[in-house]
């Protein structure tokens, strides 16, 4: 696997050759901005020295320690950006968490579960009632009937489901295909596994799958393909045609598919298609989802993986030794959430479409080139009309001079250059917040 230096730092270094010392020490960069990256690198996982506060070693800097499999990764971009939002009092359209609360009936169910004494370890693969609720929902969404006892595993968020799937089913050296831009945990988890990542880049304006490139990449050596639809950060939804091509390549070459479908209920422009529901695919697919996005409860960290028994075995074994079991009362509450009437999902979609319209129209009016987003609560734009040299410099400017946070996308590529013109905004915020962010940008962001 090609080694990539720590994400954000590496890209700035790459783009501003010869000034990496300045970036690290926080002096001005060649773009004229005080180093934004220096702020961010305070929690780098690189071997920077940090002072240790004890009597005897007060002034002795100790190098940070980390295993090789993680040394190239920095603090996640989402954490960095949310910290900067607080530091600069900027409106946070960066990290994807709603600034409004989840539904009362779900919160009440959690409180009730705690009061009812549902507070000790849950069964490792999930509270039976939740496994049932997940299977029921999957039947409704995909048409597939699964055995809640043998094919559903409850995890601590979809992030753990992904980690358990990779660790439980991928061997060191196995080839795994990702589509870039990709959610940051995929690469880090595959690095922990020691997998060999092959990356296919989805490019604007439509981020379509380059079919020929995919055909020439998939082979008998491919162990798995990871698909995220609706897709973070672009909002792309994989089309039926794309999924059919991927499916036939997987069947032909005996490849597994891991799907991250956490935004399936935020599908605005087309219907979500579950890869596992395509002919011949269930037996080779691990379908993953979670509570957080659909119920605006991202901090609860309840997720799940659905797979046939022969794949569930690996997932469950990894899960058993990663977290063993997931928060018991929150699992009980999640089973109530998943049985919400259809009207809940209709309202959720309606609310998000209104938010999306405010942000998308606003960003267009500000002067961005906005790429179409079919699902998720994200939208990607081209920032180059504003004359900044790359996505990191643009986000720095946006936070410090305009007071709005976005996410630079270069961190979601193996080759950061591919994302240098793109930044991601989220619209999972209340309408007032979205309007204020748009107003700030309209008033202060000037096209070059
Ligand atoms: N999924 C969220 C996003 O893309 C971030 C979650 C996290 O901070 N790890 O914004």
From TrEMBL:
Domain of life: Eukaryota
UniProt feature coiled coil, ranges: none
Tagged with keyword Ribosomal protein: no
Co-factor requirement: pyridoxal 5'-phosphate
A Pfam family of this chain: Aminotran_1_2
Signal peptide bounds: none
Keyword Transport: no
Any one Gene Ontology cellular component term annotated for this protein: cytoplasm
Gene3D superfamilies assigned to the protein according to its UniProt record, in alphabetical order: Aspartate Aminotransferase, domain 1, Type I PLP-dependent aspartate aminotransferase-like (Major domain)
Keywords carried by this UniProt record: Aminotransferase, Pyridoxal phosphate, Transferase
Domain Aminotransferase class I/classII large residue range list: 91-440
Name of this chain's protein: Putative N-succinyldiaminopimelate aminotransferase DapC
């Amino acid at each position: 696997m090609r080694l990539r230096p720590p994400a954000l730092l590496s890209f700035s270094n790459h783009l501003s050759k010869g000034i990496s010392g300045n970036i690290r020490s926080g002096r001005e960069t060649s773009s004229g901005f005080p180093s934004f990256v220096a702020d961010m690198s305070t929690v780098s996982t690189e071997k920077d020295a940090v002072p240790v506060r004890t009597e005897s070693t007060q002034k002795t800097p100790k190098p940070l320690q980390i295993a090789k499999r993680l040394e190239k990764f920095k603090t996640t971009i989402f954490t960095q950006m949310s910290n900067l939002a607080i530091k600069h009092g900027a409106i946070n359209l960066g990290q994807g968490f709603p600034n409004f609360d989840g539904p009362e009936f779900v919160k009440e169910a959690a409180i009730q579960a705690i009061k009812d004494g549902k507070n000790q370890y849950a069964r490792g693969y999930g509270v039976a009632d939740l496994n049932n609720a997940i299977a029921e929902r999957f039947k409704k969404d995909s048409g597939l009937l699964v055995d809640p006892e043998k094919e559903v595993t409850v995890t601590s968020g979809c992030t753990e489901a992904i980690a358990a799937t990779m660790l439980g089913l991928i061997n060191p050296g196995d080839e795994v295909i990702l589509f870039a831009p990709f959610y940051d945990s995929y690469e880090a988890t595959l690095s922990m596994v020691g997998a060999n990542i092959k990356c296919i880049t989805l490019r604007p304006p439509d981020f379509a799958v380059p079919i020929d490139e995919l055909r020439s990449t998939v082979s008998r050596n491919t162990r798995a393909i990871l698909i995220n639809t609706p897709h973070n950060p672009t909002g792309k939804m994989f089309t039926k045609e794309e999924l059919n091509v991927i499916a036939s390549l997987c069947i032909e070459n005996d490849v597994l598919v891991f799907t991250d479908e956490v935004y399936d209920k935020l599908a605005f422009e087309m219907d979500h298609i579950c890869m596992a529901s395509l002919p011949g695919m269930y037996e080779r697919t691990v379908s993953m989802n979670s509570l957080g996005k659909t119920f605006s409860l991202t901090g609860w960290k309840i997720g799940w993986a659905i797979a046939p028994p022969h794949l569930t075995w690996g997932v469950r074994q990894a899960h058993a030794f990663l977290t063993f079991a997931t928060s018991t009362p929150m699992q009980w509450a999640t089973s109530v959430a998943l049985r919400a009437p259809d009207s809940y999902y209709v309202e959720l979609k309606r609310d998000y479409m209104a938010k999306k319209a405010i942000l998308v129209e606003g960003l267009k009016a500000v002067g961005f080139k906005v790429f179409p987003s079919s699902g998720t609560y994200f939208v990607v734009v081209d920032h180059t009309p504003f004359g900044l040299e790359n996505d990191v410099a643009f986000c720095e400017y946006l936070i410090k001079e305009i007071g709005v946070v976005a996410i630079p996308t270069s961190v979601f590529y193996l080759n950061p250059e591919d994302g240098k013109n793109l930044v991601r905004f989220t619209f999972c915020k209340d309408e007032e917040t979205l309007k204020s962010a748009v107003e700030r940008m309209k008033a202060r962001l000037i096209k070059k």
